[in-house]
Structure formats: structure tokens, C-alpha cells
What does this fold into?
Amino acid sequence: MTAQPADATLTLACQGTTTVTTMEDAKPEPISMGIIVNFTNRTVQGFGHPGFGGLMDFPVKITAWNEVTVAFEGKNQVIEKSINGSIDRVTGDMEATSTSFNLKTNKTLSSTSYALKCRPAQRMF
It folds into this structure.
């Protein structure tokens, strides 16, 4: 059986918190973001920063998926950033970590964790 075109891409509206885990005494901050899960290309996208014209938003490879979980992980050496996490396809819970690193030393510069609740949505335009 083949997947229907609507099943190939999943658009999620996610709300929750983000915490800079490398900052002492950091408190969770509210966040709302859109995530695109593309099963055809096997990518997850949406962890970028709008202020950079989308340059920080790179597709992250889906490393595994089944009926319950989608796992993803990827690294962009140009902007020295990595992202990994998972989405529970039943509850909509997503956990992810975004890490900025120094390419020369491979040292972590900052790390941010996401705890999100996502629901299916349609793009606005």
C-alpha cells in the first residue's frame, strides 16, 4: 500500500517551553513554533530563528520512525549547530535539544532544550 500525498508531509503547531540548559539558573520560557515533518524526504524542519532569514533553519534527518515515535538528528557544520529529538505520534509530545558548537574545537557553546506539545495544523498560506 502506498502513502497518500497528505500523509507524506505533516505540519505541526507546537507550544511549550524552551530552556537554555548551558545557562546557570535558566528558567523555562514559553515558545510557539511550527514544525514540518516530511516523510518523503525523511526530514524535520522548524527549529530555526526567523531573525536570520531562515538561514538557521536547516532540515534535520529522521533517523527512525514507527507508528508511535519519530526520532530525528542532524548537524549543520556551516552554522555550527546540531539538533536531535523525538516526537510521540500518539500524544503529540516532542522533546528536542539544539546545540551550538565550535567547529574547530568541537566544544559546546550553548544548548537549548525544547519540551513541546504539538498538534496537526495546516499552513496559513
Summary: The mean pLDDT is 87. Helices lie at 5-8.
